[in-house]
Design goal:
Blueprint: H1 35-49, H2 51-60, E1 69-73, H3 79-87, E2 92-97, H4 100-113, E3 119-123, E4 139-143, H5 152-162, E5 168-174, H6 192-207, H7 215-221, E6 225-237, H8 242-259, H9 265-275, E7 290-301
Helix pairs in contact: 1-8, 2-3, 6-8, 8-9
Length: 304
């Protein structure tokens, strides 16, 4: 898939979106994290930090009966896959992503949890005209992946054709990038995070134009019957959680890459102080971190 779950919006990332963070994929390059490694770690942290909210969504889904075959589109490292396996103990999940590294990580987790016989992984680019054979699922789950599609309307129509009659499609998205700092932080550059987000929005408007879309009308346009939507407020205090600190660090490192050329020099310097894990201003030393965002799910049914 193009970048599904690779850039979690937290990302869903997704991504994923996120912490059984496993740091074993360096293949002999002990100090050289690849981009795939850093994406995978963010997705694992996202899964850990937001686990309760994923469970809230899987329990809310308006299903007629428990699904037996689920497809997780843009599965990343498996945040949704494992939540769905836990929620629906009789289900099999087909986990689809474009990243071989993410799928390998997902398989390792499935083996560690003893559920490898319930998971099938498929590497595929979902922007390709022809999708691989994914069977006839009665639930399709897409968390922080639909907004990465080059042609989301075509992807929605393909999902509708894929689903069993009466099957449900759950689209889950985060409302942009999560916030971690209070408004008066950091000292000397209050409001830094807001300015970083503003700089990031223009980047994402160009590169990820469907981020933040209202998927309800798009689902209706693709022939689905919308069963409902729900927005869950995420506000997780992070003062006692190492995972929140690591999640904030990794997320802001990714954010920096998209805004390094547009951020005002004083703000960039302040951001770099936060990201300097050895420095006194490191985000990992802060006692006031939180994860604040919203997660919205749209549930839509294939009626015939």
């Amino acid at each position: 898939m193009t970048h599904a779950q690779h850039t979690p919006q937290h990302g869903d990332n997704g991504a994923a979106h996120h912490g059984q963070a496993q740091h074993g994929h360096e293949h002999g390059h002990a100090h050289h994290h690849t981009e795939a490694d850093s994406q995978a770690e963010i997705l694992d942290l996202d899964a850990e930090v937001l686990a309760g909210h994923i469970t809230d969504i899987t329990t809310w889904l308006p299903l007629n009966e428990p699904p037996r075959h689920i497809v997780d589109l843009g599965c990343g490292t498996g945040a949704g896959t494992f939540a769905l396996l836990e929620q629906f103990p009789d289900a099999q999940v087909t986990a689809v992503d474009s990243s071989a590294a993410h799928l390998q990580r997902l398989r390792e987790k499935a083996c560690a949890r003893g559920v490898e016989d319930r998971v099938r992984t498929v590497q595929a680019d979902l922007d390709a005209t022809e999708w691989p054979d994914l069977g006839e699922p009665d639930l399709v789950w897409a968390s922080a992946s639909m907004h990465h599609m080059a042609d989301p309307d075509r992807a929605l129509r393909t999902v509708r054709e894929l689903l069993a009659p009466g099957g449900l499609f759950a689209v889950v998205e985060l409302a942009g990038f999560p916030r971690f700092l209070p408004g008066d932080a950091p000292e000397g550059r209050p409001g830094l995070e807001d300015r970083c987000h503003t700089a990031s929005e223009s980047y994402h408007a160009e590169h990820v134009p469907h981020r933040g879309a209202d998927w309800g009308p798009k689902l209706a346009g693709a022939g689905f019957a919308l069963e409902g939507d729900r927005t869950i407020d995420v506000n997780i205090e992070g003062s006692r959680s190492e995972a929140v600190g690591a999640y904030a660090l990794g997320s802001l490192q990714r954010l920096r890459r998209s805004i390094v050329d547009t951020l005002e020099p004083g703000d960039l310097a302040a951001l770099d102080q936060l990201l300097d894990t050895d420095g006194p201003g490191s985000i990992l030393r802060r006692e006031d971190l939180a994860v604040r965002t919203e997660r919205t799910v749209w549930a839509a049914r294939r009626e015939s």
